Amino acid sequence: MLRIIQIYGTMMVAAMGQTLLLALLSLFFACLLGLFFGLLSTVRNRACNIIGAVYVDAIRGWPLIVLAYFVYFGIPMLIQGLGFKSFRMDSLQAGVIALSLNCGAYMAEIIRAGIQSVDKGQMEAARSLGLSYGKSMFKVVLPQAIRTMIPSIINQFIITLKDTSILSVIGFPELTNTTKNVSANVGLPMQAWLLCGLMYMVVIIILSKASKNIERRINRGR
Amino acid sequence: MKKMLATLMALGLALSLAACSTSSGSSAAANSNNSSATSDTASGSDKVWLVATDTVFVPFEYTDEQGNFVGIDVDILAAIAEDQGFQYEMNSIGWDGAVAAVQTGQADAIMAGASIKQERIESGWIFSDGYYTATQTIAVPEDSDIASFEDLRGTSVAVKNGTAGADYAESLKDEYGFTITYFDDSPTMYQDVIIGNSSACFEDTPVMLAYIKQKGIALKVPEGLESEGSPYALAIMNEDNQEFLDLFNAGLANIKANGTYDEIIAKYLE
User: Fold this and answer.
1) Residue range(s) defining the domain that contains residue A139
2) Global confidence as pTM
3) Which of B104, B182, B188 minimises the CB distance to A181?
């Protein structure tokens, strides 16, 4: 174990950096996707609701590993087939697309549930005071909904951070991929995986503590 | 009625459990039937040596069109077991799983085209004599201009985790300024080159030639870029299994002397 840290320590820390980069970029886009499709599912328009539901069903029905292969190999194949022979997609781009689509679907459901958990009367009251639908949603309903959504969102963030490990199959140099490599080189898989697991755990504990703080701050006004 | 249903379900569960255990037992026996046939004449020891291996590492181990688990490793071990009269069970559990199985004592040895590496010896691995020496080289898309390592500068190459090909790429990357992407399995690695994300992939020369020919994929192997080669060996971690290593080495010498070894190599690499 010590020998692994000595020889591969910096390499594994750098890989953790790649894991965090992939996770944070994906979470950012997943929030946007989730908000967009979550709102689509709650507006009073049948077509919008259907689009929201189709996105969630289509993405939730695909295992992330399959989605990753499809984005990484399928999209370039398609675009090259359309005549853009020089089109390339690197594993970070593919990873961010696959992970944001995946996480976005879950976020959309969390946001939809959060909005629907706010009493209908809140929207009706805001509307009867003359606020537009958008204003009522963003100024009245969403701020209340966020409080109930926060624990689920934090949970989803942690799941997504760990899901980055699945992107090791398309060769993205994140922590799990690097650990496979280290373990194969040194021939000590148990030690290498223990170290890898501990690194994930430490980072996730730090992040959950930080998000608990944010949660407390948001709830302070209550 | 309820009671009858419960009894039926319990019976079903027991049956399916029994089915599971017999099927796994028979597949292990199928892998080792060559050894058990000869073990009647064995010199007393009835220890069954557990050998872990990879799932797909053509032509060293893979499942053929008929669903039989075959390959150079499989045949060599069978021939050595016949020669030395020991019993064994070969379990195909994947490279990572096989290494872990030996480390944790779930298996006695690994035979999966493992190359002898100083780093592994320092970690406590004990290798047998090399049973095959493969050179490593690169494969590039059929329409690629790459003909030397210099042409790889600034590009990314694909390798498979833990292979001699990966070591070869790592030994060249600083000199020729390319980066390495690590994949879990060969099909994904080749796909990455075909799609153009990686400019080339590094792998054992015979493995790559066999794969390209067998699958008819759009890759070619430029000439003159082979490594010096590294020997493959069976490896153990627990010193108590030294006896098995000795049996293996003695048997290997015998099958090399009587021509069985050459027959096996010719069978897979012609």
Assistant:
1) 25-173
2) 0.78
3) B182
